[in-house]
Write a structure and sequence with these properties.
Layout (H helix, E strand, L loop, with lengths): L7 H12 L11 H11 L4 H14 L3 H6 L2 H8 L6 H16 L8 H5 L6 H12 L8 H11 L8 H11 L8 H14 L19 H5 L15 E13 L5 E7 L10 E2 L2 E3 L4 H10 L3 E14 L3 E13 L13 E3 L1 H6 L8 H4 L4
Parallel strand pairs: 1-6
Antiparallel strand pairs: 1-2, 1-4, 2-3, 2-7, 5-6
Helix pairs in contact: 1-11, 2-3, 2-8, 8-11, 9-11
Amino acid sequence: MAKFPHETVPLLLDWYHHNRRDLPWRHTRDPYHILVSEIMLQQTRAETVKPYYARFLAELPTIQALAEAPEDLILKLWEGLGYYSRVRNLQKAAQAVMAQHHGVIPTDHAKLLSLPGVGRYTAGAVGSIAYDLPVAAVDGNVLRVAARVMGDDGDVLTDATRRRIEDAITPCVPSPGAGDFNQSLIELGATVCLPGGGAKCQECPLQLICAAKRDGRVSELPVRIVKTKRKFEDLTVLLLRVTDEDGTFRYIIRRRPDTGLLGGLYEFPHVDGHATAESVTAALIAEGTGVHKVTPLPEGKHVFTHITWRMVGYLCDVTLPDMSLEGGLCHGLLARAEDMADRYSIPSAFSAYRKYVL
């Protein structure tokens, strides 16, 4: 097995100290703040995370506050970051810390790993940055850097390759300096050792010891073998709008089941397939709904990890005969635009239609 070179340590630390981005979570060693930032940064760009990080900690400044927060609040604070299971697990981790560790995030790597939603990368990041534990923190950026430096041909989407690279890096992690070293690898992958042909090898502090650079294989590494076929689902999204006597608009939204895709979040009513305006009108009338106008909206698309939603939409001005909103397309609750902005979390999957809510 190829080794990760020890000579990378001073090169990376010197480069990091002169080139690192000024990110808010790099101004603290508070393990709670670091945990929040690391969960947010999973599959999300740092610039996107900044305002979410500030807002989340302003609303929930302590791990106890997070543990005790109502679910609707944490989902609302997370709205737009996607992958809502992450924030649910973050709260479960906070509750475990309160119940099992006297409100203190563990300083032991194995105990960090035992927290809900905390995997090997997150445990390594929190442990090394907050507590200077000499453990590796291997995310996608680090996998790319290491695969190129080592000339590793393994599929980085497999656990075996990830563990092999982690085991190769671990002996190099210095202490003191564990957190800076791990962050230097992450930073290098995020800003210099970019995917495919985007790598800025001329700016890389490791260019003279990088196997991929030496062998002309930068664009070939890391190896990623994607086996899952993408699934496409066609949906028709309905903005069912009711006008109150004072002219205020309210819209029907409903909560999704607690488990599964976008579990527990609110959504606009929708039906499978791409329906016509005529069929939508007929379906509403068949349920006893008064239909004043049905206006077609532009098509929308949202890409999940393995599923793509292809959507058409309609703005439907309606009168509801039964304010209990029991069953059918009109099942749910009535919410104003400000309710959706402040209280009910509408996921970004519906952003193509959320902007038509007035």
